[in-house]
Amino acid sequence: MRNTEKDKYWREMIRKQGELRHFGSMAIRKSSKGDLASAQEVDLLFRVALSGGMMTPGQLAADMGVSKTIISRLIDSLEKKALIIKERTLNDRRSYGIRVTDDGKEEVDRMYYYYLDPLYTLREQMTSDDFEKLFRLIEAANTILSNANSK
């Protein structure tokens, strides 16, 4: 457990937290009013579409860094919208995989540029090395925080 006494650099850490929140709000697009899917639903839909096949709820929970309860809620919502379908696995009839429907593929095609535009902007305006370094650092930070949260 971390020492609860104030770190002498706590003000700087608060500033950094604010910068992180600001970056997240600019880099990760929210759903537009009237969109068929929420931002988390879009994330799940994109991940399954990019997998090229089926993904299990457990894989999605681990990849997205959220609980299986949240994944179940997202799956139910996307299934009601006919964007994904649940299919029982052949080797274990109790478990299932998720795949994107044709309507889901159309929705991914319709939405991808809107959601990816901030990343395209970064890629265009940063050097290639800086862009790749940014995402290596983000991946390293995600690993550290994921490991810390699983303890």
TrEMBL record:
Keyword Transit peptide listed: no
Every HTH marR-type domain range: 6-143
Alphabetical UniProt keywords: DNA-binding, Transcription, Transcription regulation
Name listed for the protein in its UniProt record: MarR family transcriptional regulator
InterPro entries registered for this protein in UniProt: HTH_MarR-typ (IPR000835), WH-like_DNA-bd_sf (IPR036388), WH_DNA-bd_sf (IPR036390)
Alphabetical list of PROSITE patterns matching this protein: HTH_MARR_2
Xref: PANTHER family: TRANSCRIPTIONAL REGULATOR, MARR, TRANSCRIPTIONAL REPRESSOR OF EMRAB OPERON
An example Gene Ontology molecular-function term: DNA binding
Keyword DNA-binding among UniProt keywords: yes
